[in-house]
Amino acid sequence: MLTIGVDIGGTKVAAGVVDEDGKILQETLRPTAADRPDVVAETVADVVRELSAGRDVEAVGVGAAGFIDETRSIVRFAPNLAWREEPLQKKISGLVGLPVVVENDANAMAWGETRFGAGRGQTHVICITVGTGIGGGLVFDGKLFRGRWGMAAELGHMQVVPDGRPCGCGNNGCWEQYASGNALVHDARYLADVQPHRARILLGVAEGKIEGEQVTEAARKGDEASLRAFANIADWLGQGMADLAAVLDPGCFIIGGGVSRAADLFIDRARETFAARLTGRGHRPVAEVRLAELGPWAGVAGAADLARQR
Ligand SMILES: [Zn+2]
């Protein structure tokens, strides 16, 4: 039986028809009207109609970038979309006439990677999505762990520095302010400003605008400041994974998200820091740190599979 997976991000809606093995048979992309909640539901319905034409589709799974309630139907709040207590499940289901399951996008991605990607065969997985911020998903005992209210796995908002850098969530010192793409850019800009002699390559490639892409390019060319910025996020990632392992004892971590495309610049150091800070080190197995395999389509495959298991 086929299901449709939909991934609603801040700028685009990605969707696909997915079979039982997680294979995406057909896919489509649309821009998101981030400020118009009703239009987003309409867009999802359009996409579902397009993908289900001539096919026997059983259900729809939707991954959305927001806080989803424990019944997997209401988006309580979405930082990048105009949703407040949005009954997304009901709206989409009413429009398409199929069963719909709504899930947090990072949870859907974690599920997709565990079922069909880097976590295949694993029962205890912590998925860390390193993009502009940090998202997370937890799979324990072979099941997605949602917490009591559906709000679990907001890994990026663990406070790692008391009174540290301000975060979009309203708190200070959150992990994502030190270990994400935004942190990388923050550190590279700061170093280029205070130690420009170490950032000559970066300043050359950036032409006045330092973003993640420029930091990555400069780091690959040996720029000292850019390499330092990557080392910083690697250390923060490693420390964060050690803390998570102290609480949750996973069999493996999966690192995904946009920043993982530059994994060659930080993953080895992140693994080393993780192993060096792990509590009980030397007397316990060390969880593997793997890279995500499914790329941006993990969320689509995961949401589709969650709809199948509803
Ligand atoms: Zn935060």
Quick structural overview:
With 310 residues, this protein is α/β, with parallel strands linked by helices. It has helices spanning 37-52, 88-96, 105-116, 176-179, 181-194, 200-206, 212-220, 224-248, 267-277, 298-308, and strands at 2-8, 12-18, 24-31, 57-64, 67-68, 75-77, 84-86, 100-104, 125-130, 134-140, 143-144, 252-256, 288-291.
Q: Could you explain how this protein is built, in words?
A:
By secondary structure, the protein is of the alpha/beta class. It contains 10 helices and 13 strands. The protein has helices at 37-52, 88-96, 105-116, 176-179, 181-194, 200-206, 212-220, 224-248, 267-277, 298-308, and strands at 2-8, 12-18, 24-31, 57-64, 67-68, 75-77, 84-86, 100-104, 125-130, 134-140, 143-144, 252-256, 288-291. A hairpin with a 5-residue loop joins strand 2 (12-18) and strand 3 (24-31). The chain starts with a strand and ends with a helix. Bound molecules: zinc ion. The site of zinc ion has 5 residues, from loops.
Keywords:
310 residues; binds zinc ion; five-stranded mixed sheet; 38% helix; 13 strands; 10 helices; globular; alpha/beta
Round the mean pLDDT to the nearest integer and report it: 95
Task: Profile the largest sheet.
Answer: 5 strands, mixed
Shape: globular
Walk across the major sheet and give the strand order. Answer: 3-2-1-4-8
Which class of secondary structure composition applies to the elements?
alpha/beta
Number of helices: 10
